[in-house]
Design a protein that fits this description.
With 476 residues, this protein is an alpha+beta fold. The chain has one domain: Cytochrome P450 (Cytochrome p450, Orthogonal Bundle). It has 18 helices and twelve strands. Strand 10 and strand 11 form a beta hairpin. Helix 2 crosses helix 3. The protein is globular, with a radius of gyration of 25 Å. About 5% of the residues have low confidence.
Amino acid sequence: MDILLLITVFLFLIPIFLLLARRKKSSNRLPPGSLGMPIIGQSLGLLRAMRVNTAEKWLEERIRKYGSVSKLSLFGKPTVFIHGQAANKFIFTADGSTITSQQTESIRMILGDRNILEMRGNDHKRLRNALMLFLKPESLKQYVGKMDKETRKHLETHWHGKQQVKALPLMKILTFNIMCSLLFGLEQGTRRDELVECFQQMIEGMWSVPVNFPFTRYNSSLKASKRVQNMIKELISEKRAELEQKTISPLQNLVTCLLSIRNDDNEEVITEKEILHNIMLIMVAGHDTSSVVLTFLFRSLANEPAVYEALLQEQEEIAKSKSPGEFLTWEDLAKMKYTWRVAMETMRITPPVFGGFRKALKDIDFDGFLIPKGWQIFWATSMTHMDDSVFPEPSKFDPTRFENQASVPPYNFIPFGAGHRVCPGYEFARIEILVVIHYMVTQFTWKLCADNKFSRDPMPVPTQGLPLEIRPRKPC
């Protein structure tokens, strides 16, 4: 009887011992580091470093202390930080069964959970294919004229007749106006002004600790997000009615394009919620990233006279080939090769997107460590952009680095992502930047009125919004 009892107890304890051993083994394989305080973790430390423009140093200190892979807690979730070319390749080539895009809780709650960054598998493919009907180069060719028109109108209103301007706020106004025109067909007026005001409030708390207390940035952004969503819902309803009455073209703007996609049973393929959340995502991506790149392009050109002269020469040759009042064309943009290299070098040194997040869908082995299922994965763009083994003298501004893009190893230059996860709005941003820079350099000269410092919130924000002293140029 005693022997039988001992055997029973032994058999009962075996799985417990195995489970404990497995947990100990898994714990030993976790990356080094600390998760810090519950919910807050290292979030405040990272945000503080970003705001004083020491985020890269903050990460470099982690790398020196813990190595190339480390654990921490960001925005309420246990996180593994990875960096380098191998990390970028892993992030941008992993299939949907291993990791998935997952923004921070604050971003997901503000922008919605049915946008393309939150989707995977067939849903991701369906949404990407739908968005690419509007964002692919063949479709964007017809929108160059609209961007041209909005840019000229903006310069006439906000630049001509002025002696000093602030670049970043004005670029945000311009890119938002372009987005309103091409996403909704929403022209200038009180409705657009109300939308931009709510939109600016919404994006202020996108990278914040997701604690919904009154008077916090997160709380204010959530309230603004609801107002923005209600305005966009009204616009979607209006465009649906216009399509049904056949008073508007399916390719008029992004909303009409998405509403017009039908299956074999003539049913809408993209739900209204998906249209709403993806419109909000594209508004943020197209407005914030492009305005930041344009602002830092002004700074780069002011700091690099030789680069400015070479870019101006390219743009003047294009301007001379145009008749008075004639819009830029797709063919004109194709000639702006040096200008785009300057833009890429600007994005290399000051990437508009600091980094991003993914979610592990299962236990993952990476570089000898375990990334547990459900954990967040964090990567940072600038860690490879400033790698001197890839970009010699990385602090030097040198657009010739991109004369032969094949010479840049893959997964090192990633301002728009890479692989099958490359940003679908890449061509949209390229066209927007080239159109705006053409008119800026052919119509104005400028010099900086403040220092070259900037902070991140989470995108780079130059001191005082980059004030410029401007003068009109004589026509070519």
